[in-house]
Amino acid sequence: MTFTSLASSSHGNCYVVSDGETAILLECGISFRRIKKGLGFDLSAIRGCLVSHEHKDHAKSVMDIIKSGVEVFTSEGTAEALDCALITPVEAGAQFRVGSLEIMPFATFHDAAEPLGFLVYSRADGERLVFATDTVNLGYQFPKINLLALEANYDKDILARCERMPEKVKYRVTNSHMEIETLCKYLQSLDLSQCRTLYLLHLSNAASNEGNFANRVRRVVPRHVEVIVCAE
């Protein structure tokens, strides 16, 4: 299974997952033209699009994706928040299938209507991917994971030094996004014996440090795990 980042930041998020038989989008929070460009102006291979929640940086191009003939899957709460009856609603804990991919949604913790993360299992190559962004924390254990794509949004000390950032914005960040130390502690709780790659997503432009985050994560995961920062 492959995981490719087209965009990963507060300005927009969009990723491509493929097992060689089925390709899907995770999020569509950038312009439709940018999505098409990232796909070589060919959406014919995309079988579906999973959207975690309704915020613009994750769902900006929902209608364009639907109009292009790609089915969009998200929670009923997110569909209602987007005021779109053309979305296929899914539920946390209710597995569904897109081509050769089995997808298990799970609840995340964000200031949105009904946010979800996704466990993606390939029937073609047997690999498993966990995708979770815009969540304060995660309390789930995922066995036999090969790929992790998780939010590493901010560092509390850097955030505290952001003098130009309004306090209400800082409050929202700390109550709706994952702090790097929270991620590190979570990673230490997981069995990563079969994990080959960890992707760090959605780094804050103002309150993160790409090199520092990567180094901190490398110190808490096994040596065989490759750590990749998905930057804008």
Which features would summarize this protein structure in a list?
232 residues, 24% helix, 7-stranded mixed beta sheet, alpha/beta, 8 helices, 6-stranded mixed beta sheet
Shape: globular
Write down the secondary-structure element order: EEEHEHHEHEEEEEEHHHEHE
The total of beta strands comes to: 13
Strand order across the largest sheet: 7-8-9-10-11-12-13
**What portion of the residues fall into strands of 2 or more residues?**
25-35%
What percent of the residues sit in helical stretches (DSSP H or I)?
10-25%
- Radius of gyration equals 17 Å
The biggest sheet, with number of strands, parallel, antiparallel or mixed sense and barrel status, is:
7 strands, mixed
Structural class: alpha/beta
What would a concise description of this structure say?
With 232 residues, the protein is an alpha/beta fold. It has eight helices and 13 strands. The longest helix has 10 residues, at 167-176.
What does this structure look like?
- By secondary structure, the chain is α/β, with parallel strands linked by helices.
- It has 8 helices and 13 strands.
- It has helices spanning 32-38, 56-59, 62-67, 76-81, 156-160, 167-176, 180-188, 210-218, and strands at 2-9, 12-18, 23-26, 46-50, 72-75, 88-90, 96-98, 101-107, 116-122, 128-132, 147-151, 197-201, 226-229.
- The strands form 2 sheets. The chain has a 7-stranded mixed beta sheet, with helices on one face. A 6-stranded mixed beta sheet has the order 1-2-3-4-5-6.
- The protein is globular, with a radius of gyration of 17 Å.
- The relative contact order is 0.14.
